[in-house]
From TrEMBL:
It comes from Halococcus dombrowskii. Keywords: Oxidoreductase. Residues 219-415 form the Fe-containing alcohol dehydrogenase-like C-terminal domain. InterPro entries: ADH_Fe/GldA, ADH_Fe_C, Alcohol_dehydrogenase_Fe. Residues 23-206 form the Alcohol dehydrogenase iron-type/glycerol dehydrogenase GldA domain. Pfam families: ADH_Fe_C, Fe-ADH. This is Iron-containing alcohol dehydrogenase family protein. Gene3D superfamilies: 3.40.50.1970, Dehydroquinate synthase-like - alpha domain. The lineage of its organism: Archaea, Methanobacteriati, Methanobacteriota, Stenosarchaea group, Halobacteria. GO terms for molecular function: alcohol dehydrogenase (NAD+) activity; metal ion binding.
Length: 415
């Protein structure tokens, strides 16, 4: 181009991409290579952390046991969706009792988040002169006072083996909660922890394991992971590196999810989902930046204090969040349209929103907030304030200025 002003700023502006990426293994039956992956790092004793169902399902746990072979120290199959600190303390004790030098986090987002808590508590207990119970009590106090946990410089290494599509595996963050019933706190609290040290050292995405997950569980997790790719493209922290991985990841994800929604269970579907999941997560959780923003913040607001599953909340709110985004800013709609195969549409914004809704509908997820156990309209002002206070809102496009009224309008449209 002769006119420098005609060059899009995204092409010319400088960027910095700092990322200590985990090793990624992706392929059918790659769980059989877990022992190999641990050996490459000099790790010898792995504690597998999972939920009870995953830990007792032979089609899931047996390939992991076989892959670890002599490096399997034990299985802690006690994680729950609540991600409670008391569960993590029990897991940390298993790390100590078994003298485990690493954790294999097997399952969905809850188990992966719990594994990060276990890693932190086990490391803090190992470094302290106090009785471990004192260390766990101190962690409960810290969570209640600050909403997070201090992460030691050295933690127990984590290898993630996901079985759902929530996209929590290539991440340095996770949720944490505590209740009086579990000890450590006087009243129920929730929060999160995030540190580069908690990024798994390796992620093994075995398409054969995804295929063992019940259809409804996989579908419910899918929108959460899919929206990670959507948000990565319009985030203020996007880079050419994350653009490339998100565009390709969304294309694979979309193909796989639409086929899955059509009832196709051929191996290529799960292969596409495994690859798409890894690619949309690449670089979204970095030491100095993150790419999750509006949709994830809305989902957090909708599920805080309510039993609605995160993926369900994503499915309901994502199209309306995109409408709001495109009403106020460009939102890189052309790049999104290209990623979702609708680049030829006359109205890129409308085509993107429709494409996202089509994925949601193919998965059979709810389309209206009134149809799930979430907040009622009289709660929308409080939900809007929670959304605006969410840390991910820092990553919305620089020229978007969200307001309480605007967020309430999104919630009303989703109702």
């Amino acid at each position: 181009m002769d006119d420098d002003n005609a060059v899009p700023s995204r092409v010319t502006e400088p960027f910095r991409f700092a990322y200590d990426a985990p090793t990624l293994r992706c392929g059918r039956h790659s769980a059989g290579e877990l022992g190999e992956e641990l050996a490459a790092r000099g790790l010898e004793r792995a504690l597998v952390i999972s939920g009870q169902t995953v830990g007792s399902t032979p089609a899931v746990i047996d390939p992991v046991r076989s892959g670890l072979d002599e490096r399997l120290a034990g299985v802690f199959a006690e994680t729950t969706a609540e991600k409670r600190l008391s569960t993590a303390a029990a897991g940390a004790e298993r790390v100590r009792d078994l003298d485990a030098d690493c954790i294999v986090a097997l399952g969905g987002g809850s188990s992966l988040d719990a594994a990060k808590q276990v890693s932190v508590l086990a490391a803090r207990a190992a470094a302290a002169d106090d009785d471990p119970a004192t260390v766990y009590d101190a962690a409960g106090t810290e969570l209640a006072e600050t909403g997070t946990l201090t992460v030691p410089e050295t933690v127990v290494p984590i290898v993630a083996v996901p079985t759902t599509l929530a996209g929590a595996d290539v991440s340095q963050g996770g949720g944490v909660a505590a209740t009086p019933e579990g000890g450590f706190v006087d009243e129920s609290v929730s929060g999160g922890l995030s540190d580069p040290a908690l990024l798994p050292v390796a992620v093994v995405a075995d398409a054969a394991l995804f295929a063992t997950t019940p259809d409804d569980v996989l579908a419910a997790s899918a929108m959460n992971g899919f929206d990670k790719g959507i948000e990565t493209l319009y985030a203020s922290t996007a880079t050419p590196v994350t653009d490339a991985t998100a565009v390709r990841g969304l294309s694979l994800y979309q193909d796989g999810l639409l086929a899955f929604g059509d009832g196709i269970r051929e191996p290529w579907v799960f292969d596409a989902l495994a690859r798409g999941s890894l690619l949309v997560q690449y670089g979204i959780s970095r030491p100095d930046a993150g790419t999750l923003s509006l949709i994830h913040s809305l989902s957090h607001g909708l599920t805080r204090g309510h039993p609605t599953q995160q993926g369900t909340a994503h499915g309901i709110v994502a199209p309306h969040a995109l409408d709001y985004l495109f009403e106020h800013v460009d939102g890189r709609r052309d790049l999104l349209a290209d990623a979702l195969g609708v680049a030829d549409a006359d109205d890129a914004a409308d085509a993107v929103t429709t494409a996202v809704a089509d994925v949601r509908d193919a998965l059979g997820l709810p389309t209206r907030l009134r149809d799930v156990d979430g907040p009622e309209p009289d709660e929308f002002p409080a939900v809007a304030e929670t959304v605006l206070a969410d840390s991910f809102m820092a990553n919305v496009p620089a020229d978007l200025n969200p307001t309480s009224e605007g967020i309430e309008a999104v919630l009303a449209a989703a109702w």
